[in-house]
Amino acid sequence: MSDEKGLNQSRRQLLKGGAAMAVAGIGSVVAGAASAACVSDEKVMFDEVVDVIVVGSGFAGMSAALQARESGASVMVIDKMPVFGGNSTINGGAMAVAGSPLQKREGIEDSVDTMVADMLESGRGMNDVEMLKLVCNGTAESCEWLTEHGVKWKPFVQHFGGHSIPRVLQTVESSGAGIIRPLVSAAKKQGIHMRKQTKLESFIKNDEGRVIGVQVREGYYFPKERTGKMRNLGARKGVIMATGGFGRDIEYRQMQQPEMNSELDSTNHAGATSEALKQMMLIGANPIHLDQIQLGPWASPDEKGFGTASQFNTIATYPSGIVVDSRTGERFFNELADRKARADAIMTRRDDKGHPVYPIGFTNAEGAKDAQTLDWGLKYKVIQKAETLDELAKLYGIPAKALIAQVARWNKAVAAGKDGEFGRPMQKAMKLEQGPWYGVRMWPKVHYCMGGVRVNTHSQVLHLVTDKPIEGLFAAGEATGGIHGASRLGACAVAEGVVTGRNAGRICSEAQRIRLLES
Amino acid sequence: MFKNLSALSLTLFIAFALVVPAANAMKLKEYHQEIMTGDDGKVECAACHGDAKRKTIPEVSACEACHGTSDDVAELTKRPADAGHSVEPNPHDSLHYGTELACSYCHQEHKESKVYCNQCHEFEYPDMKR
Question: Where is the FAD-dependent oxidoreductase 2 FAD-binding domain (chain A) (predicted)?
């Protein structure tokens, strides 16, 4: 009896991050981390208890948190970073919506089935079709939900690569911040506990194997691993993992794709790493498609991260301009193909030593009229301006005659409404007739992890062996795998994050409350 | 000679490593020197770090005690309403993060400060105190 008590005591100390934990940490980091993956104890004393804990504060996390709160649950959001929003708040703020009022106004016919078909084609048929349908089916309603929470959209629909028709809405800020910040302020107003610098260390399970909380480092200072105080947070209804991808975890992404080494930059924030995914796997989550890592084909090697060029190319160069090989002045791919096709095409441009020969994307002032990052790109010399095509050719060392001939061929194709060379969709194509011209050097960057944990349409994380839900554990957004197959279409991450986040939030909030002890 | 040199540098390294944790040896920014030095001429660690024995990275509240809230600081570096792209964005009120970011992620007292935004951007803040 006294032995048992003693054992419990020391276990509790371990949970509290007392001396025992410190010793384990010094002794063997690997063993410590592995054994900490799951702590089973009916009588865990929690420092704080809520109904729903959401890990991560991007599109999926904030949508899950608000939806759970609006369904009556008490909610806490934790994020390891010093700011909320992860990759979402630094992304382009574009959301694919099937059947938006803006499409109707422009007379564009769209349907859930068409969007599913587009995403299946881009995903090379590898997609989890049930999850895909869930996402596409929820876009129109979720878009409305965002609008009700204060998100403001540009008054036009865009045509992003790989989509068969224009269906992309974008925030007026041209940033996911236009979604995240309204959601974070709504969350604070509704009494959701928003905790930054709080890092998930491991899950806490009860004797039945249900996830009942998380062990965290509070006051964590990314990326200093030993910082912060260990605390136990209890979740009466469940834990929702909205922990994103691992695009910036060079070591782990290279295990999946050896060529994605440190020479490839990433558009992701520094916190896009793999620890949360690994913790889920340690308690039995099933990793799907982890080697399907997307490169963003609109990035520039002349700046860090997402930068100014990605926006510029997405809204200007790709829909309203062309991309040429700097050695020949000629186009070499369909500029509105899906991301994988475009990134693969760009990365074939190498010299005989294998070094990149950066292709040049360009459009004119007319094509760039909606590009909010144009001035900033010019300021930092990522985007360059030329008055004539001759001048543009000189700027980038392109053979001028060939470039001028290519532009003439392109204009003919636009007039004919058909791109005979590369089969580009021409609905929004425009003739390139008059300067000034704006050019960018292009090279892809690691952008998105299609892979993640397997979930069902209730957003429950499924066990590797039984394929049954791991009780109390939900996941949404980029942290899940399979929805996008081999290549995600542009603007579908916001769609996925918001729709699956709300799905997880709603279903988790409907779960039975379990009794937990709070100190 | 080489051997001696490396022995010397090792000694120096050890000496350095031993000295660094001592309060008086912590480098302070010039503009903080006076306010953070006590009557006895020693640096007052507690001014930012509190009294805990294990020194941790100061909370925002430590900076706010003298500099005002993050909203106050954002106001100090506000851009003119008609500012174009020639004026850099307000680092204390970011499009992405608002005023959420803790001071210490950019402003570092004991080593060179760095601009958090510039993990992705190329902003130039020549007046940032290093």
Answer: 51-493
